[in-house]
Amino acid sequence: MKTDIQIAQEAKILPINEIAAKVGLSTTDIEPYGNDKAKIKWSAIKRARSNHHLGKLILVTSISPTPAGEGKSTMTIGLGDALNNQLHQKTMIALREPSMGPVFGLKGGATGGGKAQIIPMEDINLHFTGDMHALTAAIDTLAALVDNYIYQGNELQLDPEKIVLKRGLDVNDRSLRQITVGQGSKFNGIEHKSSFAITVANELMAILCLATDIDDLKKRIGNMLVGYTTTEHPVYVKELGFQGAIAALLANALKPNLVQTIEHTPALVHGGPFANIAHGANSVMATNLALHLSDYTLTEAGFGSDLGGQKFMDFVANHLDKKPDVSVVVATVRALKYQAEGSTVNLNDENLSALRSGFKNLERHMNNMRNYGIPVIVLINHFASDSPAELDLLQQLVAEQGITAKVVDYHEQGSRGGIAAAQAVVDLANTKTANLTPTYQDSDDVKTKIAKVAQNIYHATNVEYNDKAEQDIQKLKKMGKDKLPVIIAKTQYSFTDNQKLLGAPTNFTLHVKGASLRNGAGFIVITTGHVLDMPGLPKHPAALDIDVDNNGKISGLF
Q1: How far apart are CA 303 and CA 489, in angstroms?
Q2: pTM score, whole prediction
Q3: In order of start, what are the domains of the chain with their CATH numbers?
């Protein structure tokens, strides 16, 4: 069977101006990056915002991730192609940009798979239009400016050991998690501890994905917390005057990127915050633009519904021009059997008992999404190893919950692999009323917000705070920031903070280890369990399988 990259490289790519024309954009509305990708100009973005049309918003989320694979991006892309090419609905897809760290590490890219891919997949997974590089440069320029401010007199008495800003790199490099800068002579700066987070986990990435224009971008950058003075007074970027320079580095990156699927459905790929650390959705700019330009917009929330899905409903949706109309929950027979067995060894064998037991994970995810007041449908991503009995049982179990499940095979068949599923999504969006009911209220304090997410989404019995977390929350209260939305950093593999507890655990305690302010992004990050914002590389990183020939043709990218 051909690899994903072989399928992508053999696909016919239409000129990007033809893709733009499908959604009413002219050649003067785009800035081409070669023949197959482009950025949308500000004039076109402003014009689209001024129209009163808003299409339906379809949110794709999934069960808890497993080594068996779920294929959420593949499903999003395939469903978009089915809506566009089989049902002939004016459709756009809005997805996150992949991070090169995972591409060269373990997780891989984020452009789909098989016959449901976004192209050019090599460019999107690597340098693309330079957004990630611009973010990395902005992150590290800000860090350099702050260190220079301290070195050049430090008028506000910013404490070097109380800087909360991290440096950034779009590489999985565990060696940079904790570092010391300014070592050596006094001409090298003030020696102090520092650290790196991968670019996509940095607050500037979240800001890029939430900003609505350059003025909003500058305001958000200015509101970023730099650190604290020797007397514990908070210092923000705007007090140091760096927001204009950092916004200048990000001004072009703020414009959404237009590409296409293998079947030529228009796609906006823009921004990429991690879902287990940040809010896990593509940019507000891109999703809103797609809503104004199309009748159906498909977007994706990172990882399972307890992470990206919850954050989308409780946080991201408040920044969009409309709330979701449908929530699609992706599941596979193999992944649900893994939830019961905890091993990939026998997943090719029919096992109705394991499937029935593992279904508890899907049951919780789909009912959590339904409790938001958004119509839900389950799409079962078909694998060759799935037996007819297993597929029948899974559909029956979903139906018993009063929810429709459709089996699709977009990976092997492209848009033709799920026409009935696409029609079911359209019917759901047009016949059922969506009325988003959030998990918590804006007026709730930080602990109340955490408790409501922990109890209603994770199904935890208790929430436990260590001393550091208690101190962090007290500091937030003192600063008047304890009513901001919460973004809970948690393992993606379990509803709990312990990645080994699979299925749908109950009677457990969520352990909160810290709370940190992301004032520019407008949320509080709540740290639980053991979550890293700078991943490491595995023993066999994907980089070992990636190569390029003398004609510049890349291989090994999945």
Answers
A1: 12
A2: 0.95
A3: 4-129+255-431 (3.40.50.300), 131-250 (3.30.1510.10), 446-528 (3.10.410.10)
